[in-house]
TrEMBL record:
Family: Belongs to the 4-toluene sulfonate uptake permease (TSUP) (TC 2.A.102) family.
UniProt-annotated location(s): Cell membrane; Membrane
Organism per entry: Sphingobium subterraneum
Topology relative to the membrane: Multi-pass membrane protein
Any one GO CC term of the record: plasma membrane
Keyword field: Cell membrane, Membrane, Transmembrane, Transmembrane helix
Name of this chain's protein: Probable membrane transporter protein
Spans through the membrane: 12-38, 44-70, 82-107, 113-134, 179-207, 214-234, 240-259, 271-293
Tagged with keyword Transmembrane helix: yes
Length: 304
């Protein structure tokens, strides 16, 4: 059953798009990630223009984040003050990212830049996750206990002026650190359509030194508002948001996330992490190969 996407300017199979959303939702529920970093590449593989894929994926991440934020707020695992600073930086980053997006789009290099950024980000993150997961599995099988992580913010963060107290996070640091982190995430959200959780969570743990109890909830809080801002900026500037595509993805991801959450309770975290690392590396390799393959159609027409 085909449906025409007005912004992407092509017809797609409804069940395929809902299935892609369901697959991403399944992975999100199993591995605890937003899934936006997989949505955009999968849409590109299917034939959706990269600019539309990135903008629409951000819209889908917004919808998928709502239930998670509500759940964490009810459990009091969100540092709202830290989240507000991250959101402020994310909004600034989204506006800045929109300018970069428009410049690259006008130069005809947006598709290539998206692919290169995904190869670099997914490749490096996948390798780091695989390395950590293999060490955890080896330690588990040999009976060794991995050393406990010392919660400490980075020396560069400690050197910044104007310190604030973030009571929920147990920190006394400069708000400039999370603000700059928010800017970086906002730029990535605009360019790649990702929520940024796969970068935000490690940065909150190892750079800011936040307590683990509030990291995921605060990250989701920031992702919700930054993807909302990114969707608004995309709608007003690039005009690349396809709401029909986003709704189909959201329909599948909500269902898939519920199934993935149930499966995650039956599998050890170490095996979940190495499974996610494998998926991330496969997507990165496929994106890298796509940069070198000659496309079926060398030239495309863009109607404005």
């Amino acid at each position: 059953m085909d449906l025409y996407l007005p912004i992407a300017n092509l017809s797609v199979n409804i069940f395929v798009i809902v299935g892609l959303g369901g697959l991403v939702g399944l992975l999100s529920g199993m591995f605890g990630v937003g899934g936006g970093f997989l949505t955009t590449p999968l849409l590109i593989f299917y034939g959706i223009p990269p600019t539309v894929a990135a903008a629409s994926a951000a819209t889908q991440v917004t919808g998928a984040s709502v239930s998670g934020v509500i759940d964490h707020l009810s459990r009091d695992t969100v540092d709202v003050r830290m989240g507000a600073v991250l959101v402020g930086g994310g909004v600034v980053g989204a506006v800045f990212g929109a300018g970069i997006f428009s410049l690259l789009q006008a130069a005809g290099q947006m598709d290539t830049v998206i692919a290169i950024l995904y190869v670099v980000l997914l490749g490096s993150i996948g390798l780091l996750m695989a390395y950590e997961s293999v060490h955890s599995i080896v330690a588990m099988r040999t009976g060794q206990r991995p050393p406990a992580r010392k919660r400490r913010h980075h020396p560069l963060v400690a050197a910044l002026p104007f310190r604030w107290r973030f009571y929920k996070s147990g920190l006394y640091i400069s708000p400039l650190a999370p603000f700059l982190l928010g800017i970086a995430t906002g730029v990535l959200t605009m360019l790649l359509g990702v929520g940024g959780g796969f970068i935000m969570v490690p940065a909150m743990l190892y750079l800011l030194g936040m307590t683990t109890q509030v990291v995921v909830g605060t990250s989701l809080f920031q992702i919700l508002f930054v993807t909302m801002a990114s969707t608004l900026v995309h709608s007003l500037t690039t005009k690349a948001v396809d709401l029909v595509l986003a709704m189909l993805l959201l329909l599948g991801s909500v269902t898939g996330a519920q199934i993935g959450t149930r499966l995650s309770r039956k599998i050890r975290p170490e095996y979940l992490r190495i499974g996610l690392a494998f998926v991330v590396l496969v997507v990165a390799i496929r994106m890298a190969l796509g940069l070198g393959w000659r496309p079926d159609e060398i030239y495309t027409l863009d109607v404005r």
